[in-house]
Amino acid sequence: MPARSLWKMAASGAAVVLVAAGCSSDGTEDTETLPNSVVIGIAEPQHLIPSNTTETNGSQVLTSLFYPLVKFDAKNEPVEVAADSITSPDNKVWTVKLKDGFTFSNGEPVIADNYIDAWNYGAYGPNGQGASYFFERIDGYADLQSKDPDGDGPEKAPAPKSKTLRGLKKVDARTFTITLSAPFAGWKSVIGYTAFYPLPKAAFSAPGVIKEGFEEAIIGNGPFKLKGKWEHDSQIQVEKVADFKGAVPKVDAITWKIYQDTQAEYADLVTGNLDVQTQIPIESLGKASSDLGDRFQKSPNSAFAFVGFPTFQKEFAKPEVRRALSMAINRQEMTDQIFQGSQSPATSFVSPVVAGFRPDSCGANCEYNPVKAKQQYVAAGGPSSIEITYNADGGHKAWVDAMCNQIKSSLGVNCTGSAEPKFADMLTKVEKKQPVGLIRLGWIMDYPLMENYLGPLYSTNGSSNYYGYSNPAFDSLVAEGSAAKTNAEAIKKWQQAEDILVQDMPVLPLRFGQNVFGFSEKVDNVTVDLFQRVDIYKIEVATF
Amino acid sequence: MFRYLVRRLLQMVLTFFGATFIVYALTFANADDPIQALVGERPVSENVRRALTERYHLDDPFLVQYWYYVKGLLTGDLGRSLTGRKISEMMAQAWPVTIKLALIAIVISATVALIAGVVSGIRRGSIFDNVTLVLTLIVLALPIVVLAPLAQLVFGIQLGWFPPTAGRNPSVYALLLPAFVLGSLVVATQLRVTRASVAENLRADYVRTARAKGLARRRVIGVHVLRNSLIPVITLIGVDIGALMSGAIVTEGVFNIPGVGFNLLRGIRTEDGPLVVGFVSVLVIVFLVVNLIVDLLYAALDPRIRYE
């Protein structure tokens, strides 16, 4: 082959590259061209069907597409929004009246059936919806589930007894009743959760079957509607619905820009390509205040970090040992030095964001007192070495090591942090009751009630009680609170339950979370709520 | 030549199934609980677990699962990721941007490596040669996990020359910075191979002959030296495509480019077997095709190599 053709080959190769590279260079994001719009960073949502959305990103997007039955006011009390009234004479049968004139963004009026259909879909076991346990309290939930006959495959589970919840009844077009299997005073707070949004008729291709592709172009009853489709891994754009009947946001459009890496998101925030980042990565916290000035802010959220005692193990069976360990650690030092003030020390068993929270309810047991801790520890015969197990993929090593050092110097016992690759590995060991020592855990609430901390975390059958704590007196107080007539009465019971925890110390409360967020010069009035979501009704484009 | 091609294609089919089997087996061996990994640190409710287990045949033995997978593959169905998205759709979205990034990276690195390598090779021991050698040492020593965020910080945030992230439909300009970072992975070795190869060929008999014939220096270097020096470099560029793909896992994460590397990283993080195997299968095909092209290019470059 003559030499000339070699160069020709190279030239044509280069041409191919240029064509390939240039062919879509005009397809850059057109987000800046929209006036009065903002760009908010999220991670790729797992799902957008409300009853399958349990993580922050999906629920953040849904806040713009849907209008909830209730929202939460400054005191975290539920206030009717899409509902005209939600009443119950006995906390068992609840009547929901919907406001008139609301429509889905495709024009369908919002009626009682939309709620009943959506909730039935969410609760039906075989649909495998992530948030289906929220419907547990509704009468008839058990009939929508089925058990695998031989525990774990190969035989298939039979179809559940029923496809619809017995507890949901339509009264008229805009009224329906919810019957609970047991009275629950806090129910009005529960239905503020994402899982309780309605779905339009257009969502279903047959009764109880969601149309293929509906999730990609989801239709809601909220102030915004989807512009185009969900562009996976890239962005979700929403624009205002014309003459929306409810509260009207101040911006005309929102682009939910999707990031996989929070540091990349931070880079875009600093350069002004992004307007809001709700959680600044811990690596960037040090320079955030110089990068952003007073656009770097903090607000409380519902996260609660703690370490659980394997109460089923002999060494940790005595409450005195657990109390001594709690006094041996300096929570303030840990939050200041490792989290640089992005979290605050926890000295209670529920988060400060819920009604009924009392600061320092843990009292002397959560105060740093190495001398007393050591006396008590020796007297109670605590183990001579402590192990704290954590999952290595969650960035917990630094503070676990710090906590171990504190335990070592306070109590003079050996302490090691031991990493499991993933949270699931840790859980498997805990479930098999292998001796893994103390276990690192965390909790973010689903709805703002004390019960949402007490029930799952500390009651005998709690969904996240991995450390086997069980106290019948505690269980019955939580249940009595749930059945109470009023919220005030409920809180009283729940506080009594919390006092039992102070004596028993099944876990070491460590830290309460905070939103550490930042925003660009383009936007104003940015608030991040307890669920780490930007308030889309308050945010506005700054005027200069 | 034709028979060679057919033989190679048959080999490719075997390699493809062998490779996917191994990847599938490794993913399977590694995944202890993909459903738990998917939802993170929350407890998975019983009905979700059952629905997903049934959908992905997770409680069947490994070989049965692999059989379902191959069956899907042969009927053109790559299946769904554990989040329920069609993998074929995810690929259709991910590949264009990764190809674009890799091509720009290859063009940048090959241009730099060839020009600097040839000059260094001709003027061995000069200041230029020594400086490039030191520079390549530095680039070789810098892992991409350091280089990518550093480049983003300096050129994207502080100097503001490039946008710090690229996104789904980036302009060529937005891709330049990540492409430079990605290209830096391979440029040093390419440059050094070019330099050594040129230096060696300059001493070859046919070059002495060409010079003795009184050919112009440009022609000696341009045709006789360069063409023969390119053979190892082209092999290297072919192999480098693999290095670029693994580098893309980091680069695409840092620059927020939702391409192949980005999806692979997510798949590995969430133990999403179908997703990982799907993307890796296509990567295997890419490798095989590139290697075939490289082998065929040999023949074009060196008349001494002819396939029968």
From TrEMBL, chain A:
UniProt cross-references to InterPro entries, sorted A to Z: Peptide/Ni-bd (IPR030678), SBP_5 (IPR039424), SBP_5_dom (IPR000914)
Domain Solute-binding protein family: 79-464
Keyword Signal: yes
GO molecular function, one term: peptide transmembrane transporter activity
GO cellular component: ATP-binding cassette (ABC) transporter complex; periplasmic space
Keywords: Signal
Superkingdom of source: Bacteria
Keyword set includes Protein biosynthesis: no
Stretch forming the signal peptide: 1-20
Recorded coiled-coil stretches: none
Gene3D superfamilies according to UniProt: Dipeptide-binding Protein, Domain 1 (3.90.76.10), Dipeptide-binding Protein, Domain 3 (3.10.105.10), Periplasmic binding protein-like II (3.40.190.10)
GO biological process: peptide transport
Protein's name according to its UniProt entry: Oligopeptide transport system substrate-binding protein
Automatic annotation (TrEMBL), chain B:
Keyword Disulfide bond annotated: no
Topology of this chain in the membrane: Multi-pass membrane protein
Protein localization: Cell membrane
InterPro entries: BPD_transp_1_N, MetI-like, MetI-like_sf
Residue intervals of the ABC transmembrane type-1 domain: 95-298
Family matches, as CDD domains: TM_PBP2 (cd06261)
Alphabetical keyword list: Cell membrane, Membrane, Transmembrane, Transmembrane helix, Transport
Protein name as catalogued: Oligopeptide transport system permease protein
GO cellular component, one term: plasma membrane
The keyword Protein biosynthesis is annotated on this UniProt entry: no
Transmembrane segments: 99-119, 131-151, 171-193, 229-255, 275-301
One Gene Ontology term from the biological process aspect of the record: transmembrane transport
Family membership: Belongs to the binding-protein-dependent transport system permease family.
Top-level taxon of the source organism: Bacteria
Organism in which the protein naturally occurs: Krasilnikovia cinnamomea
